[in-house]
Design brief:
With 480 residues, this protein is of the alpha/beta class. It has helices spanning 48-55, 111-123, 133-140, 146-157, 161-171, 174-198, 206-239, 253-261, 307-322, 364-371, 390-402, 416-438, 442-460, 466-474, and strands at 26-29, 36-44, 56-58, 70-75, 82-91, 102-109, 127-128, 241-246, 279-285, 288-294, 325-331, 352-357, 379-381.
Length: 480
Amino acid sequence: MPVRTGWGIIIPGGKENQLPEPCETIVAVATPPGRGGLGIVRLSGPRAIEIGRGLFRPSRPGPLRPWRFRYGWIVDPEGRDLVDEVLAVAMPGPKTYTGEDVFEIQGHGGPVVLRRIVELCLEAGARPAEAGEFTQRAFLAGRIDLAQAEAVAEIVAAQTRAAAGLAAAQLDGRLSRALDEVAGRALEVLARIEAGLDFPEDELGPIGRADLAAGLDGPVIGLLDELIDRGRAGSALRQGVRTVLIGRPNAGKSSLLNALLGRDRALVTESPGTTRDYIEEILEIDGRPVLLTDTAGLRELAGRGEAAEAAGMAATRKLMAEAGLILAVVDASEEAEDWSLPYLPPELREAVLVVANKSDLVEAGRARAAAESLPGRPGLAVSALTGQGLGPLKELIGRLALGQAQPAESALLVNLRQEAALKGARRAFQAARDGLAAGLEAELVALELREGLDQIGRITGRSAPEAVLDLIFARFCVGK
């Protein structure tokens, strides 16, 4: 008889998460490298509280009560020298981040003193934590699943409020709950098929097969399609809608990039063709990212010695084809014929926003004419030098670029590994559905269903190979 788990049935070859025994006590600095007002050293494992208590001397006598901060000092046990003034807290497992006993020391954020505290912990019997090992132990203890564990790394790496919000929703289980629903529906179909295999008198007939195929259609395959689409929306919110700046050399594309970012990111000179390669930066608008891409200027080349610039222009054309929004930058101070965009393919016109730069050098009417040089497309007159028009330009970029993205409430944070598993699950479940409709042997249909469930398990960690787990957690920072 199958054994029940969180999904309802343990799939053959599956295993429950558990910490390896015996488990060593690990230690690491949990705050970023460098100097700061606060630095945290974290111990986790069977001897964490013992080691922490051995180094901590409270300012007043009394026991160190669980979950309560105490003020005192870290002291070298041998020389009795004071190391740092700290707050310390003991947190007994299993209701901790790692599921183990945890001891945290909150001291000053100097690298020398933090390194000394870690050294004392190592001398007392701890070992250095590996990258991501605290989160890996939380996963192995069943505190979080693999999708939630990966969300921890995304929260740390988030560059915008939208990306941080998506990561927080995934840490809260948004993706995991949806996958549990898919798996639960697929397991119902698998259970009915396997009941027919165990009891031949209950073998499925044509009506039963049609019923099971319908059970896989919308509730499983349809929901997976929805998750894949929501994952693409999440990628746009996390990485930003690519917005490419194009135009002739010296139209002021790099100056405009710097002005929008509020800092000097691109090299700006009076010589044409300075930008040979493209530069990418995230611009946050209303908490959501826009991926600004400064590109090589587009012009005719006369000599053979301009191969690097030619390669840059080829990259520009490729980026234009991939862009969600194209900022066509024209120089309002140049002649009107220079406002044309001969290098813009007709099929990309609908993605263009014309930006008439250097409008501070000309009259308002001429600047407006430059901005309206592409009939039927919106345009704005700005000055990267003075900042004129940059506010309205950001607002318009936000409407045109971010208006393509789904609302953050419906988006999901799905990385490439997870997307591949979602698509693999969909293929397997579709093969099972088609097999049911075509009268395929029940054993083969069951194999496809197990493959689909295995693909889902690769996302949550229920069936992820150990090598994949090691690769995922190795990408974390030490101390997390």
